[in-house]
Amino acid sequence: MRAAIEAKRAGVDVAVVSKLHPTRSHSGAAEGGINAALGNATDDSPEIHTFDTVKGSDYLGDQDAIEIMCREAPGDIYELEHMGAIFSRFADGRLAQRPFGAAGAPRTIYSADITGHVLIHVLYEQLVKHDIKVYEEFFCTNLVIDDGRCAGVLAWDVVRGGVHAIEANHVILATGGVGRMYYGTTNAFACTGDGMSLAWRAGVPLKDMEFMQFHPTTLKSNGVLITEGCRGEGGYLRNSKGERFMAIDAPNAMELASRDVVSRAEWKEIAEGRGVDGCVLLDLTHLGHKKIETRLPGSRELALDYAGVDPIRDPIPVRPGAHYHMGGVDVDVWGESIVPGLWAAGEVACVSVHGANRLGGNSLMETITFGRRAGQAAAERVLAEGDTGARIERSVLEDERNRINTLLNATGGERPGAIREQLAKTMYDKAGVFRTQSVLEECVEEVHALRERGRSLRIEDRSSLFNSDLVQALELESMLECADCLVTGAVARQESRGAHARIDFTERDDANWMKHSLAWNDRGEVRLDYKPVTVTKYQPLVRSY
Ligand SMILES: Cc1cc2nc3c(=O)[nH]c(=O)nc-3n(C[C@H](O)[C@H](O)[C@H](O)COP(=O)(O)OP(=O)(O)OC[C@H]3O[C@@H](n4cnc5c(N)ncnc54)[C@H](O)[C@@H]3O)c2cc1C
């Protein structure tokens, strides 16, 4: 939405295509906040924000891209505020900022603990204000590449049925992450990596796919997130003996160490028998009624509804869950891919500002800053080039109609849900917080077998109206391709860096592995390749918190 607004402002004809109503996108579930070095709480600067992000990325983030985000973030926040975003404030009226993991200063701007909800509604209002056409509940099934450049998208109308061609000289993917390939995830059901696989099929490599972030505080029953803001506001993590175990791995930052560090510490506590029913405890009881009610009301509600615990009185059982995918479509600092006319921004993209581990609050910022930049750059290109002449041929549309019809009438093997469940379990068990060669190799084989099974599906709902069976089948294909890229990259990377923690290669290996992986589509198989990390100011250091 941020990209569309920018392109429209530049005077370009633009439309948004979304498989959900835009305000139902996963961004709306973001709780904790969005990072910009405003310096409202203590001294802060874009330089410190840059350093924290580079260190958080375990030196895999591209430093030029990180500098851009940290420098432009404050302006983007003020603009959101002027658009109407209601952020929480300090008593003196300035925008409030809370501490977040691995941040050198309290720099996370927030709207209580419903920040994403606020932002997504403000952006949607701007879509309406700018009179931007929205193809609501249109599921993009393929990109069209005509003579080497992007000519638009093919989309299934989820509400009314039917495949449509939407021609465009430039397409910006903003389709979000792929957490649903894991069982135990904070991600919404729609986070199925569609955009990554669309780009992959169109010949764009996916970068750093092996890096999936596990969030340390998710509820066991359904993976629902309890925001890092809880620890930012002073919450403790305890084991079954009541000990604050973060003292072992992060004696300085304690609960506010980087997410990969906290998730690994929790996993160890649970594995070594100091957990509570497969979880550790997030203790907010000492924060008091008033602070919990005013700063963390949503988290209290989630704990009450899904864990049956009132955090004012009792600690919340939590465990690591798949949360954010650092990898994605390989694009430059303007969001442009190697296929002319194809761009990406947000979680679907890998610019890369998060490297091997994202800092909480940096992702919402990335969607805004790089969304704006992609919208601006694509619009400038349109104005400079005019019509590129790329078209969607009638025959291309007919082929896609046939493909979808064949799927709709498929009576073969299994229902998509069964394979989806198996995939999620395999990924959680075999490519999770800790990884080893032999288990990852098993995982690759299983994912390949699942991809094979996924080629013969049975769709039981034959109707074309709101056919969620069909949508699930399409999403399954995306997740299977993304999973293949992820595990193939993970087997190859014989080091531990950020979220990729290998039991058999416990150290970071800058000499051999300080490089981005690129997963290419080689006639349906994953082929790996690598490219260098951009370093501007910060040489890699030992990372401790
Ligand atoms: C529970 C939770 C809490 C979080 N909290 C924070 C936080 O506090 N701070 C922070 O910085 N980050 C947070 N994150 C991460 C952050 O929210 C996400 O990375 C970010 O919002 C992703 O935004 P996006 O625009 O890239 O994708 P999304 O918001 O997921 O939107 C994707 C859009 O693409 C559309 N789409 C997808 N596939 C298709 C298709 N095939 N055809 C058509 N349309 C399609 C969808 O309809 C949707 O509109 C959180 C994430 C989760 C899951």
Could you describe the 3D structure shown?
This protein is of the alpha+beta class. Among the domains are: 105 residues, Succinate dehydrogenase/fumarate reductase flavoprotein, catalytic domain (Flavocytochrome C3, Chain A, domain 1, Alpha-Beta Complex); 114 residues, Fumarate reductase/succinate dehydrogenase flavoprotein-like, C-terminal domain (Methane Monooxygenase Hydroxylase, Chain G, domain 1), CATH 1.20.58.100. Helix content is 37%, strand content 17%. It is built from 16 helices and 21 strands. The chain is globular, with a radius of gyration of 22 Å. The mean pLDDT is 96. Flavin-adenine dinucleotide binds next to strand 1, helix 4, strand 6, helix 5 and helix 11. Flavin-adenine dinucleotide (FAD) binds next to strand 1, helix 4, strand 6, helix 5 and helix 11.
